[in-house]
Write a structure and sequence with these properties.
Largest sheet: 2 strands, antiparallel
Number of strands: 2
Bound molecules: fe (ii) ion
Radius of gyration: 22 Å
Strand order of the largest sheet: 1-2
Strand content: under 5%
Distance between the termini: 25 Å
């Protein structure tokens, strides 16, 4: 366990805490990484556990909407790509749970919070995947938005999180490209294929725009996480970057984005967009989206079905340690 108490000598804990705080602040100011063994404020630790575990949950729950299409992929090639992508997402989840565990919170505790419905995960995964085009749109837009969000996290002040994000971002880039390529193939196919792409984009566009979270003025955690070097770029700025990058790609696909107010603003050098329905966002975040219950139930069922694996692994570990230390057995 990495706790503050362990790093402090008993006689001079007050003085050492002050020194430790100063060392922490200096580390952040110098843009050096904070590592698990370093002293850190409790609030910094709690914020990281919350953010990294939410991120891990999002990766794991994010496997479900696409998993829905594995058996119905239109070709062997598309199926192999989809399987590889979904496995990547599972790997991202495991990576991130490991990064969060370095902060002293056991993985089982984080997972229990997800299963109990206490932990949050990205609202986007509570929407259904109705057609094959949805799989392409998830790659293009959902992974595209995730990259925008996650590239700055490669420079996050907490070392294990920053290092995990470097690898994850490389894989997310493959996810985005395969989605776009799949949609490009469909959009150049028959009229009904193009219509299917347009329909999927119409349904996913606004939920994806919401993925960046509430406007900076209303984001309760933003200011402090920016100060700590966890977050580097504001929600609104990231959303703007994403929209600016996506509009020309939509033009290439020959589809429209479902926002009548979307237009280039030469003065700002950015695209303006219409108002976001934050009521919908909060409704989905607070558990009442189209698939919230279904997603949680799928996770609970998987957890129950995996009980024998956890038991077998624990029994195996016990046996190995008994063999290694026979006297203690
Ligand atoms: Fe991922
Ligand atoms: Fe991804």
């Amino acid at each position: 366990m990495y706790t503050q108490a362990m790093d402090l000598s008993r006689e001079s804990s007050a003085k050492t805490a002050t020194d430790a705080e100063r060392a922490f602040e200096a580390r952040i100011a110098a843009d050096r990484k904070v590592e698990p063994q370093d002293w850190m404020p409790d609030a910094y630790r709690r914020t990281l556990v919350r953010q990294i575990s939410q991120h891990a949950h999002s990766e794991i729950v994010g496997m479900l909407p696409e998993g829905n299409w594995v058996t119905r992929a239109p070709s062997l090639k598309r199926k192999a790509i989809l399987l590889a992508k979904i496995q990547d997402e599972g790997g991202h989840g495991l990576y991130l749970y490991s990064a969060a565990e370095t902060l002293g919170t056991p993985r089982s505790q984080m997972q229990q919070a997800l299963l109990d419905g206490r932990a949050k995960y990205s609202s986007i995964f509570n929407y259904p995947t109705l057609t094959w085009a949805d799989v392409g749109v998830i790659g293009w837009l959902v992974d595209g938005a995730a990259i925008m969000n996650q590239i700055p996290l490669c420079r996050c002040s907490y070392g294990p999180y920053a290092r995990a994000m470097i690898r994850i971002c490389k894989e997310e880039s493959f996810h985005q490209r395969q989605g776009f390529e799949s949609l490009l193939t469909m959009s150049r196919g028959t009229d009904s294929q193009l219509a299917m792409v347009q329909d999927a984009v119409n349904r996913w566009w606004w939920p994806v725009v919401m993925m960046f979270g509430p406007s900076d003025a209303e984001s309760i955690h933003s200011a402090q996480t920016m100060k700590w070097g966890i977050k580097r770029i504001s929600n609104d700025e990231l959303r703007q970057k994403f929209i600016d990058a996506t509009v020309p790609q939509a033009e290439l696909l020959g589809i429209t984005l479902p926002d009548p107010d979307l237009r280039w603003n030469a003065e700002r050098g950015h695209y303006d967009h219409g108002p976001i329905n934050w009521d919908e966002f909060w409704q989905v975040v607070n558990g009442d989206g189209p698939c919230n219950r279904e997603r949680l139930q799928a996770r609970r069922d998987a957890h129950e079905r995996g009980a024998w694996v956890r038991e077998a692994a624990a029994a195996h570990a016990r046996k190995r340690s008994e063999r290694a230390h026979p006297a203690a057995a």
